[in-house]
Structure formats: structure tokens, C-alpha cells
Amino acid sequence: MTNKFLAIALLASLAVVGCSSSDTPAEHSAADRGEGHTSSSAGLPAGHIAAGEQLASTKGKATGQSCVDCHGAEGNAPIDGTYPKLAGQYYDYIAHALQAYRDGDREHALMSSQAKDLTDQQIADLAAYFGSRQSNLRDLHNAH
Predict the structure, then answer these.
(1) Which of 69, 80, 85, 136 has its CA 20 to 30 A from that of 114?
(2) 3-class DSSP state of 143
(3) Which residues does 65 contact at the CB level (< 8 Å), separation at least 6?
(4) Measured between alpha carbons, how far is 106 from 137 in angstroms, rounded to an integer?
(5) How far apart are CA 85 and CA 89, in angstroms?
(6) Mind listing the pLDDT tens digit for each residue in 23-49?
(7) pLDDT at site 34
(8) HEC states along 7-65?
(9) Which residue in 98, 103, 49, 99 sits closest to 74, CA to CA?
């Protein structure tokens, strides 16, 4: 009976440890911590689609380009095949990518300078806008 009780106690403690560790947020980059930024979209303010739409067409100071200049109208028609389609992408994906470019954890010749001055609110707005657009993306799972 004692072995059965110990086994149950051990399994319960492992379950608690497993569940609690998944609630721990991802480590913030040095730039995030220094500037008070978050590295997870969970910490961003609510995004506003209309503000994101306006921002997506605004020319950046660093490059003289706007989001739609490179990614196309509503993020569906990139000017280069290596640029991603943004329309319909998950909010979290867009927000995390922009945060990484801004904070220097992800680098690209244009995107790093384009994103470096974005605030958390602007990132949330852009992610809300592009995530709300009708997507031309398609699922390639099991495609041959």
C-alpha cells in the first residue's frame, strides 16, 4: 500500500511540475529587457486594425518604404518571391517577427531598420491589420 501511495504522489508531483513549467514565459532578449519591451505577443497591448492599416501604408524614415511597398496591397502580393505574404498570418507570428527585427534578434537588410523604431502598440496594430486580411496563403500539408 505504501508503494502505491508513493507512486501516486510521485506522478502527481511530476504533473504539477510539468504544468507549471509551461506557464513560464519565454526568456526576453537583452534589448527587450533594457527597453521594457515584451518578447511575446501576450504582453502587447490590444491591436487596432484601422491603425495598422494606416501604419502599413506609412513610409518608414529609415528605408523610405512602407509595409505594402514590399509585401503588396493588404500583404498579399510581395514584390519579390522571397518576401512573405503577410495577409492572414497569425497575429502572434507577425508580432513576434516584428519584435525580433526591432530588437536585433532577427536580422534582414530592410526589415531590421524598418522595425527598429516600432513601439509595442505599432507592432500590435500591424499584426492585427495583416492578420485580419483575407489570405491568399494555402496549406501545403500533404502536397506532393
Answers:
(1) 136
(2) coil
(3) 59, 110, 114
(4) 23
(5) 8
(6) 333 444 444 445 555 555 677 899 999
(7) 58
(8) HHHHHHHHHHHHHHHHCCCCCCCHHHHHHCCCCCHHHCCCCCHHHHHHHHCCCCCCCCC
(9) 49
